[in-house]
Amino acid sequence: MESMAVDNGFDKNEDQESLKISLLNRISENNEAHFKSQQVGDPDLTTHEKFTIAKGILDKSKALFLSKYGKYLLDEHLKYFEGSDDYEINFYLNELQKGKKKLENKALIRNRRLEALRQLCTEGEYFSDMEMKRRNPLLFEELVGQYLTDKERSELEENTQPSDKSFSSIFFNIIEKNVMDSKLKQEIREDFNSMEPFLTLALPTKSSNWGEITEDAPSSSKKVLENSRQEDMSNNAKALLVNEFRSRVYSDFLGGKDEEFDYSTVDGNDEYDDLIMLETDQQDSYFDAESPKIVYSDDSNEDVMCD
What is the DSSP string of 239-277? Predict the structure, then answer.
């Protein structure tokens, strides 16, 4: 019995030593960890030098080692510090474990929101283009609306109904039609530029009473020039802006910034985890089926966009 107890103790010490070497190797190979102050022009520390410095800190104080390098360790490495009666060691262990748990929860919530986004993109109207525009009017105007001509904006509003899945098809039809008469528009702009001095002189002003300051009427030439600049933007560029608008809305949703959405229905809902696992399994099965296999005999046998 004594021999067995000695053997178990030896095995435990051997495991601890192996774990110690493993965690020191990880720290010495980490490019973000700081080992000592160096002057400009000093040669970089070698991996062996980093290993020696880290080992010296670990042998001197496990608590100090955890405070400096604990965030770079894997969960399995933290086992090396467990079972201690030292308050500082246990304090840093608890802080590291809470931090890792927080990161795990953050990743879990993001994955659940991502799965909810996928569902909402394929089911219902929540992520239809018109609904996104309704919920984010300022963002739409900043990214897309200000670059639409009056004609494009008018046709977009007139032809799009709340039940439509996407305004993109209507939008692209509009700008495609504009391409057909782009040559005519260019000729009109050239004619207008040549006539602009005369048009400016002929602009009317508001009538005023005696003593009032006369204000110029809104410049029709300025309005035409604004439309001209809007039309100068290529249709491809406008299409990219539509996609940028969508991407920003999706990103805001994942970041918890959608004020109309009840995140409590997703963040704490573990049903989304099953859907994520199912999707992962399906992807794995697909890639397994597509992977080339060696047959020895006749008996051989995974940026967020919604499409």
Answer: HHHHHHHHHHHHHHHHTT--TTS-THHHHT-THHHHHHH
CB 143 within 8 A of CB 248: yes
Give per-residue pLDDT as tens, 161-205: 444 445 555 455 544 445 444 544 555 556 555 555 544 444 444
For residue 167, what are the CA distances in angstroms to 149, 243, 246? Answer: 16, 12, 12
State the residue for tokens 């035409």.
224
Query: 33 and 27 in contact (C-beta within 8 Å)?
Result: yes
What does DSSP assign to residue 73?
A: S
Contact 221, 199 (CB under 8 A): yes
- Please name which of 195, 197, 155 lies closest in space to residue 178, comparing C-alpha atoms: 155
| Count of beta carbons in the 10 Å neighbourhood of residue 175 | 19
Instruction: Return the H-helix or E-strand segment holding 260.
Output: none
* Tokens (6 digits) for 186: 């260019």
Contact 153, 140 (CB under 8 A): no
Q: Half-sphere exposure of 159 toward its Cβ, with a 13 Å CA cutoff?
A: 15
Contact predicate 103/88, CB 8 Å: no
Q: What is the pTM of this model?
A: 0.50
Q: Which residue has the tokens 């880290």?
A: 54
Give the whole-angstrom CA distance, residue 147 versus residue 141.
8
Report CA torsion sign: 49, 55, 57, 60: negative
User: 203-212 pLDDT, tens per residue?
Assistant: 444 444 444 4
